[in-house]
Amino acid sequence: MRRLEEKKWRIVTEESIRKYCEWLSNCEKSEGTIEKYRYYLLQFRNYTRERNVDQGIVLMWKHYLRSRFAPVTVNGALSAINGYFKFYRWEDCGVRFIKIGVSPFCQESRELSKEEYQRLVEAAINRGNERLSLLIQTICSSGIRISELVYVTVEAVQKGKAEVDCKGRVRTVLLTKQLCVMLLEYAKRRGITEGTIFITRNGNALDRSNIWREMKALGAEAGVEKDKIFPHNLRHLFAKTYYAAEKDISKLADILGHSDVNTTRIYTRESGNRHRMQLENLGLLVTAYNRISILL
């Protein structure tokens, strides 16, 4: 009877989500992580429609997500609710993550090229959206996360570096001289004398959803597939460009703020087509046409 009574109270509410997110904040989780968890928990709440939560309903939600989203996205949602269950001691409701095989190649359909990046910047300029053009260039030239743009302040730009506090770690993000000149000139024209440079007309920090939407709107004019246009892809382009020039993955990990170099390896993966071209350039086929190669 006691067990049944406990289950009657296993209902996900907005208040319980708020308390959990407040706890995450006290644990110094990043704002980006907290917002992502809040979003997934609200989606789960809408799915359960105030029904009692047990592992059965969680498994149904997992199946529902798998039929609509990529495994990585599904695991992100499961991470949010499993953490919520652990906080409220509903451990028996938790479910396993989807096992994902690690591919040595990135999806070419989502790989943003340097030329496409340049066209996005030009499209923003042509639209008269100077703030967006500078924001795109700031992320791509420094490798900073979109959630870390708040640390790009007038004071930081004057020093040529931003001290970023993310996920409990503080790191220095260097800003190029040319970027600093561009940002200071922009701030002067906008009357921004201190604090964060990328702000709304009301002086608030830009919302990531608004940035996402503004970037997507550039697609048609820039001739870039919308699936390639999202802020984090600019960070990936920075990582690939830096690694291609320096071949120093440990230093790149420090620049990006990764505690595990294996995370950085994901950012430096090449497309399958590029790898195929590299294999062809090795010149290891002895005969042409349809004859069997003696190397095979």
Explain how this protein is built.
This protein is mainly alpha-helical and 296 residues long. The chain has 15 helices and four strands. The strands form two sheets. A two-stranded parallel sheet has the order 1-4. A two-stranded antiparallel sheet has the order 2-3.
Residue runs with pLDDT of under 50 for 5 or more positions: 1-7, 292-296
User: How can the largest sheet be summarized?
Assistant: 2 strands, parallel
Given the structure, what is the number of helices? 15
User: Helical content, roughly?
Assistant: 55-70%
Structural class: mainly alpha
Q: Give average pLDDT, whole number.
A: 87
Annotation, overall tally of beta strands = 4
- Outline type: globular
State which percent range the strand residues make up.
5-15%
The run of helices and strands is: HHHHHEHHHEEHHHHHHEH
Radius of gyration: 23 Å
Strand order across the largest sheet: 1-4
Distance between the termini: 70 Å
